[in-house]
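REVIEWER CHECKLIST
Item 1: Sequence provided? yes
Item 2: Single chain? yes
Item 3: Sequence as submitted:
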Amino acid sequence: MSVELIVLDDELAAAERAGQFLADAARTGGHIALSGGKSPEHAHETAAELEPDWSGVELWWADERCVPPDDENSNFGMAKRTLLDHLRVQPSDVHRIRGEVDPEEAAAEYDAALRGIRLSLNLLGIGPDGHTASLFPNAPGLRERERLAIAAEPGLDPKVPRVTMTPPMLASADVVLFLVTGESKAEAASRAFAGPKSTATPASLIRAQQGQTIAILDRAAAALLKI
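Item 4: Structure as written out by the authors:
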C-alpha cells in the first residue's frame, strides 16, 4: 500500500501541516488517536488554534507510558498541556489509557474499549530505530492479530512499561498520518517508507487498510528518500 509523502522545509512547517490535518478531522468529527514525543506538540497547538471546538471528537491514544497522568512523561499529560487545555470545547469523550495501574490491566481495559472503533485519523511518529507507537523492532506485539491493545516492553526514554495499540488497530483508520522530523529520523524514514516491510522497522508495517497513509516530513527527515 502506497504512502503519500509531504515534505516541508523545516520541523515547524511539518508540525503545522499535521495540525491542519488534526483540525480538519476535528471539524468532521469521529475518533482521533494521538501519540507522544516532542514532534506533535506544535501540531496540537496549531490544531487547537485552527479548531477550538472538538465536541464531535472522541479522543484516543496510540500508546501510553505506564506513569500517572500528571507525570512529565505521560502522553496524555503532553496532549493535555498542548491541546486539551487550549480548546474552547472539549472532546465528547477522552479515552485515556490508565498508565498508573498494572500494564496488563490497563491494556485489557483499553482493548475492550476499542472494540468496534474505527479511527478517522491516527497521528503517529517514528523513532530513530523505526518504532511507532510502542511497537519496537522485532517485538512480539508486531505479530498480534486478535487483540487491539497490549502491554508492551519498556522504551529507552523513559525505561518504563507501556501500553500500545496493536497493528490491526493502528491500521484501522481513514487516515494514518505519520509526522517525522529531524536528521536523526532520516534512516528510519527511508526504511519505513522506501524499504521492504520488516519487523525490524515497525513503522513499515503500519498502513491504513481501508484509507490513506500519509507521511509529513521535514527536509532533514526526508534526506534519504528519493522524491
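Item 5: Key structural point noted by reviewer: The CA atoms of residues 66 and 96 lie 12 Å apart.
Item 6: Recommendation: ____
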